[in-house]
Design brief:
The protein has 60 residues and is an all-alpha fold. Helix content is 78%, strand content 0%. It has two helices and no strands. The chain has helices spanning 2-22, 26-51. α1 (2-22) runs antiparallel to α2 (26-51). The longest helix is centred in the middle third of the chain and has 26 residues, at 26-51. It starts with a helix and ends in a 9-residue tail after the last helix. The relative contact order is 0.24.
């Protein structure tokens, strides 16, 4: 799962860039930029959770 999160973060970044390039009106542009930032945040959460140790596990 950690690699999936690392792949999702750039997807959100490119979604936000595409919104800036494709939408001239500020309303839809802001909505898509917020969605892109949300996708980046979800990717970050998945990547961090993928690198965490399970509960009760100790480091070697």
């Amino acid at each position: 799962m950690k690699y999936a999160g690392l792949l999702v973060m750039p997807a959100g970044f490119f979604l936000a860039l595409a919104a800036l390039a494709l939408f001239p009106e500020p309303g839809p542009r802001a909505a898509f930029v917020l969605c892109g930032l949300a996708v980046e945040g979800m990717g970050l959460v998945v990547a961090v959770r993928g690198h965490m140790l399970p509960r009760g596990a100790s480091r070697p």
